[in-house]
Each structure stands twice: as structure tokens, then as C-alpha cells.
Amino acid sequence: MTTMRQAFVRTVNEEIDRDPRIAVVTAVISSNEFPQENERVVDVGIREQTMVGVAGGLALAGLRPVVHSYAPFLVERPYEQIKLDIGHQEVGAVFVSIGASYDDPAWGRTHQSPGDVALFDTLPGWTVHVPGHPDEVTPLLRQALKDDNRVYVRLSLHENTQAYPVGEGFTALRHGKRGVVLAVGPMLDRVMKAVDSENADVTVLYASTIRPFDSDGLLKAVRDTDHADVMVVEPYLEGTSAHLISEALQLIPHRVRCIGVKRHAELRNYGTAEDHDAAHDLDVVGLGSAVRSFFRG
Amino acid sequence: MTGDEKHEWAAASTIDVLWVLYDKVLNVTPATADDPDRDRFLLSKGHGPMAYYAVLAEKGFIDESTLDGWTTWDSPLGQHPDRMLVKGVEISSGSLGHGLPIAVGTAIGQRVGKSRGRTFVLVGDGELDEGSNHEAIAVAARLNVANLTAIVIDNQSAMYGWPGGIARRFAVEGWQTAEVDGRDHEAVFAALTAPHDRPYAVVAKIEKSY
After folding, report:
1. Which of A102, A221, B34, B198 is packed most tightly, with the most Cβ within 10 A?
2. Residues of chain B by 3-state class (helix, strand, coil), percent to 5
3. Which CATH superfamily is B5-29+44-205 part of?
4. All structural domains of chain B with their residue ranges
């Protein structure tokens, strides 16, 4: 069984041989997965600020850098470098993280990054992919490597049983009349189980690309229902997409329920990802309860 | 001393080195500002860009009349330079500690692209307080980014100084180094054109500012 990380490594190693623009910049993590003898593969050691700065410089010199590390070290630690060395220089890069919100919670809070997508949301021009299956990783990455834009690809150990075609718009997997549930990336399978368990007559949209936000797709889905009630289930900080949902539905009286990693307190427990899912109501039981209460009546 | 006055000091500190760079060292003109084989100059210490703008105007990258309206709404010239607004400006800078890591990347990119161009980056001794510089100093040496020259304007503004001197900080990581009077144009030229097969740091000493 191929993991998302393995799909990422395989895809980049295939493309780096084909495309002389592609470069890889790492800070030790995963560096042994890439051909160190290739002069376009740069491992800077455990120096994440310089990892992003070097990537910005490579992009200014005409290359297409892939920047990779564990999510908190890729996004949170060098955040100003992302803002200035990539965005403010008006250059592109492909950032690829592993670890997600809490893929390995036994490592504690230092290795958790539920706020990564929210941080990218503060910066203009970023495409954000949250694949839900390893087979979605390769097409998303191949397109990103061809382009010149700024892309964040958020990989996870958690995945759905089935891949769906990737693209910028949301994919409607089920149609109902009571409202709309938007499931992002690895949240899809559990959303479907929760909806089934509650016999909820809702439309289910799936997104492996959450930025740009498919406002038109959401609006159309809402208009095809009898109630402008939208639940969004994201595998990162709750409410990350709330402002875009509100903007998309600004002319329609509507209700929104945002589910994700809770904001109210830092969870200091170790345990497993499943333990954390339960604590954040991101498991089937928690989601079923949310579906039941939100779509009541 | 106000922020504006500090930036005036910063401009006064860099003016001689900037002039020598653009007048005698850098292989770049307005006509070759996008040439892959050009030399790239990165003003990491984006503070006090008045000197930078003046040199760019003198060398034809920007119209001299533009200087008058600087920092106004319609002016492309601000207290920190923006590469998207000013021809010839290689990086947008202002927040300290960004230029040297970026310069390592551009120099590697030039090497990968078989460019004849070199990368020069100007930092301040106070700016070296930022830890990101020390990441980049180490990486440039380990990867032997020999087409990279860092110019440190040493106006003794670092809060705690550098034991043994700034050049030593680079040298222990494997850089070739030189120290020069930053007001002596001939000495600056000689230092900036000295051959080197390793990353190269030129410490340009200036009178203490503030």
C-alpha cells in the first residue's frame, strides 16, 4: 500500500529527471528520499528559515523549487520566510508537508500543525491541496510542478478508501435536500459514514483542493437544496474556511457549522490520532452527532 | 534618533560600496536587467535605500525625477525597496535576515543554470544578529557556493558585536574573507574583484554610526 508521502517522493523523483526546472529543498526530513547527487537537490540541514530562503532564491533564478518538511517546521517556523521570500518576491514554489494536524500525536504538540492552512490563508495567491488518497497526490503534484504559482500540498497518514478525480472544483458525491456537507481531504470517509448513520438527506461535496475555494460550486449545491445549511468538515483548525463560505453565501440567509481541530485549548494529551479525532469530534460518532443536531427538522 | 534618521545613517553607510559595485564590479545594466547571465545584487539590508535608489538612478535603472517623490503614494520608491516596482532591484527587502539565505539560492540557481552571473548580497553588521544569516553562512560554505559574495557593512551597530571580528565568523565556516575600509573606493574595488574559489565575505568597515 502506497502512502501519500511515498506517492509524493516517487512523483518528484520522476519529474525531476524530466524537467530541468525542478529543484528540491529539504531540511534533513526525507532528504534521503531524493537523489543527493543531483545538483538541483539541496539539503540545508536543520535550518528551516534558510530552506525557504534558498527556495526563494532558486525561484528567482528560474527554477521550480519543491520545499518539504514536517508541517510545523515547513509552515510555522519559517512563516515570515514564506511571506517574504516567496510571496513578497512574487515567485512560486511547491510546499509539501507531512504530519498534518496530528498524524503522530505521541510526539506531542511540537509536531502538530492544525493551523497551517489558516496561516497560508493570510497570504495571497496560494493554492492549497488536501488530498484524501495517495492516488490523488500524483496528479495534484504533477500539475503543481508544471505551473509557476504558489502551492501547498498537505499530506497525511489518514486517507479515504477511494480516490476521486482531482480538480479545482468541489465534487458532488451525493445529492440531498436538507443541506450541504463539505468534506475536505481525509475527512470524506468518516463524513459519509456519519451521514449514512443518521440517514441525513444531504448533499455531500468533496474537496481535495480547498484554495482556491469553489464558491460557485458551493453556491450551486446550496441552491439545489431546500435549506441553505452548510456543514464543513476540515482536518485542520475549525472554521478555517468559514469566511469563504460566508462570502459565497452572502446574499442568501444561511446557517454554517464548522468542524475541525478545536481552537479553544491546546490539547496536551499524547495517544493516537484516533484519540485526537474523538477529542475534536472528528470521528464518526462526533460527526454523526453534529449531523443529527445541525440538520434536525 | 528617529527611524528616518537611522535610515539616513544606513544610506550613508552603504553609499560608497554601492557606487563601486554598480560603477565597476557588477556585470549588469538596464539593458541586461533580465539577462540570466547578469550579476545579481541583493540589498538584504533594505534599510536606508536612498543610496541604492540614487545609484540606480545614476546608472539608468530608474529615472532621476522619480527620486523626488519617494515614499509617496504614487512613487515606486519606499523606505524599503520592492523588486516588483523598481527595475534592477533583485529582491524586495526590509525585514532583516532574508537576503543572505535568498542569495544562497540564487547563486545555486545560477550554478545549476550554467550562468556566468555571480550573486552579491549586502548585509549590515547589526543585521547579522538575525539567526537566519548564520544558517545561510553555514550552508553556503558546506555547499561551496563559490559564486556568492557577501558584503558586510560594518558600522558597529550590532548590539553585542562579534568576538574576534565579523570576518572570523565567516572564516570559521569556510568562507574566504577580506576586510577593507568601506570608504576607500580603490580598496573596495580590489576586494570585490579578488579571485575566490569559495563563498567570499568582504567586511567593509565604516565609522560607527549609532
Report:
1. A102
2. 40, 15, 45
3. Thiamin diphosphate (ThDP)-binding fold, Pyr/PP domains (3.40.50.970)
4. 5-29+44-205
